[in-house]
UniProtKB/TrEMBL annotation:
Protein name per its UniProtKB record: Cysteine--tRNA ligase
EC number: 6.1.1.16
Keyword rRNA-binding: no
Positions of the Cysteinyl-tRNA ligase anticodon binding domain: 411-454
Catalyzed reaction equations: tRNA(Cys) + L-cysteine + ATP = L-cysteinyl-tRNA(Cys) + AMP + diphosphate
GO molecular function: ATP binding; cysteine-tRNA ligase activity; zinc ion binding
Family: Belongs to the class-I aminoacyl-tRNA synthetase family.
Binding residues for Zn(2+): C27, C218, H243, E247
Length: 461
């Protein structure tokens, strides 16, 4: 298996530290809002990596953190805390906000059939590990105290910038205008912040009340669960220049050696060839897709159709054609299920070897999907082909058993829903005449209604 390592800018043969178990760390969500489809693309990539490793027989020890401590608006140290901003806007405590959006995120990744990593630690439950990490950096001379926090001295660390390949001058140019004149270098970053009184989330530390820097969260939790050195670290390309550069600096400074062997990053998702942003109103969520009648797995299909290292452009037209292709693919697979035509085993083996080659070549899932399509379209209908497709689907993660009819449930219009609700009320009121009239009206619109102990079930006729 070969993977592209951002650190070396090359595809490399994947050699895990242990023969059996692969240790992975993935930067998880900051839970102050709904994840948008661009965020979710990164987790679909993470899932592809998991599934290809499992397909190759590895077991996984995979950590994905939940950043429930507010970090700052930008990747730099200034700006308003994201969690606090969310809390203020929604009149809730940061803990309530974090809990709500963590549940929403888990629901989204479940809808996308993304495997949940073995360990999902919350930052707020690992403050003592972070403090210990900061103490270690101070002890080794990499951390220093200022009036507003503890900073990492990037000039003391030789390899700073090796992941993004930016030099220190570029880092300075990229750093924002500094308020804190006590920093040794403009690009030094906070590993611990002293909390102003109005900051809701704060913890006791050797430097008074405060809260951890975002970067230290990942370094500390990764080390706690995966040890000093582990195999793979994943994230989005937007993490490369600051967040991951800083994680590398912290971990290597403390350990005296690299903590991660392979760094893997997925590219951005664009919308209508531009950036996704709140002000443009194009930060779509899984619920937005569902409301328009799309199956989240059709979105998954769309993501699998683009290589994770290529930018991908989302439009509603592309979503529509992905839905059509996804349905055809699932139906095509199902058509083989009851087939009994004989297929030459050599043909099956060739499909499988092409598939294996594609997935093991830096997760070339679009190519693997192409091989699967060739199998779907193969001239003979055969259970052997179905078994092959089922095996391939261990990586794709589609719902091959799902009947298309069920998808139609998503398409109930508000008008129909109002009729269904009205009929339910009529039944409660024992107004059987009205209830029957509405049933007939629904029938005339092609909808059958069935009363069960759990309420009315709706079907298209
Ligand atoms: Zn991280």
């Amino acid at each position: 298996m070969r993977v592209y390592n951002t650190l070396s800018r090359q595809k490399e043969e994947f050699k895990p530290i242990s023969d059996k178990e692969v240790c992975i760390y993935s930067c998880g969500p900051t839970v102050y809002n709904y994840a948008h489809i661009g965020n979710l693309r990164t987790y679909i990539f993470m899932d592809m990596l998991r599934r290809v490793l499992e397909y190759n027989g590895y077991t996984l020890k995979h950590v994905m953190n939940i950043t429930d401590v507010g970090h700052l608006v930008s990747d730099e140290d200034d700006g308003e805390d994201k969690m606090l901003k969310g809390a203020r806007e929604q009149k809730k405590t940061p803990w309530q906000i974090a809990e709500f959006y963590t549940a929403a995120f888990m629901k989204d990744i479940k809808a996308l059939n993304i495997e949940i990593p073995e360990i999902v630690p919350k930052a707020t439950e690992h403050i003592s590990e972070m403090i210990e990490f900061v103490e270690g950096l101070i002890e080794k001379g990499y951390g220093y105290e200022t009036s507003d926090g503890i900073y990492f001295d990037i000039e003391k660390f030789d390899g700073y910038g090796k992941l993004s390949r930016a030099n220190l001058e570029e880092q300075i140019a990229g750093a924002r205008v500094e308020v804190n004149q006590e920093k040794h270098h403009p690009a030094d970053f906070a590993i611990w912040k002293k909390a102003p009184r109005e900051h809701i989330m704060q913890w006791q530390s050797p430097w008074g009340m405060g809260y951890p820097g975002w970067h230290i969260e990942c370094s500390a939790m990764g080390r706690k669960y995966l040890g000093d050195v582990f195999d793979i670290h994943t994230g989005g390309v937007d993490h490369i220049p600051v967040h991951h550069e800083n994680e590398i600096a912290q971990s290597e400074a403390l350990l005296g050696r690299p903590a991660v062997n392979y760094w893997m990053h997925s590219e951005f998702m664009m919308v209508n060839n531009g950036k996704m942003s709140k002000s443009l109103g194009n930060t779509y969520t899984i619920d937005d897709l569902k409301e328009k009648g799309y199956n989240p797995l059709a979105f998954r299909y769309m993501c699998l159709n683009a290589h994770y290292r290529n930018k991908f452009n989302f439009t509603w037209d592309v979503m529509q054609s992905a839905q059509v292709s996804y349905d055809r693919f699932v139906e095509g697979c199902q058509a083989h299920k009851s087939g009994n035509e004989a297929v030459d085993i050599a043909v099956v083996n060739e499909f499988l070897s092409d598939f294996d080659e594609a997935v093991n070549d830096d997760l070339n899932i679009p190519k693997a999907l192409g091989v699967a399509w060739n199998a779907v379209r193969y001239g003979k209908k055969s259970q052997q082909i179905f078994e092959l497709l089922t095996k391939m689907n261990r990586i794709f993660g589609f719902d091959l058993d799902k009947k298309k009819e069920e998808l139609k449930e998503l398409e109930i219009s508000p008008e129909i829903q109002a009729l269904i609700d009205e009929r339910q009320q009529a039944r409660k009121d024992k107004n059987w005449k009205l209830s029957d009239e509405i049933r007939d009206e629904l029938k005339a619109r092609g909808i059958a209604i069935e009363d069960t102990p759990n309420g009315a079930k709706v079907k298209y006729i």
